[in-house]
Design goal:
Low-confidence stretches: none
Mean pLDDT: 88
Order of helices and strands: EHEHEEHEEHEEHHEHEEHH
Largest sheet: 4 strands, mixed
Radius of gyration: 26 Å
Strand order of the largest sheet: 9-2-11-10
Shape: elongated
Helix content: 25-40%
Distance between the termini: 79 Å
Number of strands: 11
Length: about 290
């Protein structure tokens, strides 16, 4: 991926042409099938190994989930959610990482130019060299994904293995999944695969199975198959995630209007220069000059 493949930058109001205007790049997506996941944590370990992350060793918190939440050193986490269904105990496993939203709230909240970018393939990435550690992205994310590092005070999250994608490889978490719970490809293909799987689950009697691809954030780059789509909270997912209204107003209205105002003032100045010319201020004659003339 080159700089030409960046279609959105944080902290700017510049309008960039659609990716397809330069060359066609199909949006990509990860597909997580919760009905196939066994909670083996292979994806979590693969992410740590590929990205050289070393989260501190935690303590037992009454769950096989460890650590208990994402951090600057844990970009992928296997969550264990205990639920009761028809008086039967079961686990709902959730592959937790950045959702790569179609309308990324973190990018809209970020005020630093280029610290967060969205590429033509739909992936959202952070640039630690430009991050100032304000934490706006942390509070803006409806999925509670980005985390600030206590060491360098910069925000970090899953990059969808951007370096592997640039080399034509799939993300490390997908590569290591042995149950087929994780797949990777174009979003169109992943949605088709998910729809076929949903038909199969319905035929098996799981009539509440569905696809989690929330419209409130314009879809996501990680779509999920849930056994009961009516209760995403049981997988630790928000039911209707949204981009906050203040961030939308700032990025989509206030910044473009500000840029338009600056361009308007520049245009008025040019028109004035052409129509009226330079302003000439006549210097007043000093009192000594007047005395000499007299």
């Amino acid at each position: 991926m080159s700089a030409r493949d960046i279609i959105m930058r944080s902290g700017t109001s510049e309008l960039t042409p659609a990716a397809q205007a330069r060359h066609a790049v199909a949006p990509v997506a990860k597909l997580f099938d919760a009905t196939k996941c066994t909670g083996c944590k292979g994806c979590q370990v693969a992410c740590s190994e590929w990205n050289d992350l070393r989260a501190p060793v935690g303590t037992f918190q009454g769950s096989y989930q460890n650590p208990m939440e994402l951090s600057s050193e844990c970009w992928t986490l296997m969550q264990f959610h205990e639920v009761m269904d028809d008086d039967k105990f079961s686990w709902n496993f959730t592959h937790t990482a950045c959702m790569h939203c179609g309308d990324p709230s973190c990018l809209k909240a970020c005020s630093t130019a280029g610290a967060i970018i969205k590429r033509a393939d739909g992936t959202v990435d952070f640039d630690a060299d430009k991050c100032i550690g304000c934490g706006y992205c942390v509070t803006a994310c409806p999925f509670d994904v980005p985390k600030l590092s206590p060491v360098d005070h910069k925000a970090y999250k899953c990059t969808m293995c951007a370096d592997r994608l640039a080399a034509g490889m799939e993300p490390s978490c997908v590569k290591t999944c042995v149950t087929g719970a994780l797949k990777f490809g174009t979003k169109e293909d992943m949605l088709f695969t998910a729809q076929q799987r949903i038909k199969q689950l319905h035929a098996e009697g799981h009539t509440k199975a569905g696809i989690y691809d929330p419209a409130g954030v314009n879809g996501t780059g990680m779509i999920m198959i849930l056994k009961d789509i009516t209760k995403p909270e049981e997988y630790g997912l928000p039911k209707d995630p949204q981009v906050s209204t203040p961030n939308t107003l700032k990025q989509d209205w206030i910044k473009p209007l500000g840029a338009a105002g600056i361009l308007g003032l520049a245009a008025v100045a040019v028109i004035h220069r052409i129509a009226v010319g330079r302003n000439v201020v006549e210097e007043e004659e000093s009192s000594s000059d007047k005395a000499d003339k007299e």
